[in-house]
Amino acid sequence: MTWLADTAASYDTVASSYADFVSDALEKQPYLKAALTLFAAQVDGPVADVGCGPGHFTAYLASLGVDAAGIDLSPGMIDLARASHPDLRFEVGSMTDLALPGASVAGVLASWSLIHIPDDAVPVALGHFRRVLRPGGLLMIGYHVGAGTRLKTEGYGGHPMRVHIHLRQPWWLAGRVRKAGFTVEAEWLLSPENKTPQAILFARASG
Mapping DSSP to helix (H, G, I), strand (E, B) and coil, where does residue 52 land? Predict the structure, then answer.
């Protein structure tokens, strides 16, 4: 798939600049930090951080005692994550073909990674999340709220990129999550007065 290759290559290009950009994200966004803290408190077992980037959220979960491991499409991001957090596990992989055994994790975190997945591939990714989660396992998704898609051609230090960013309405995403076999437990709207608000969805694997 061209969009998968474009996304991986783009994040390889900006990996170092992106890592610098998000290095203090949790200090700047206390409500996001609180959401991750709540997620950590609610999971009982291993967690897969899918679309982990340079591993900053994976490391935060680990600091709270979670057995967290990261997966990302970009080899460059995984190299950075391994270098920055040598005590944690990171692997190259895709949420559309998630190489984890069924019912092997207690939690899945997808923080602003589903935004690069086209609408018609979202059910595929959510299906993999449901497959790898144990019954009662917790899913946390962070995403941009809005409508439509925009092509990002430059970012993070002015480096060239070619990634599509898909904005979604909470009702749309929640509907797909339910169809994938989850019960939606909470939805948080972050920075509602921004031009592009952010949101977090918590859902429990049915079963």
Answer: coil
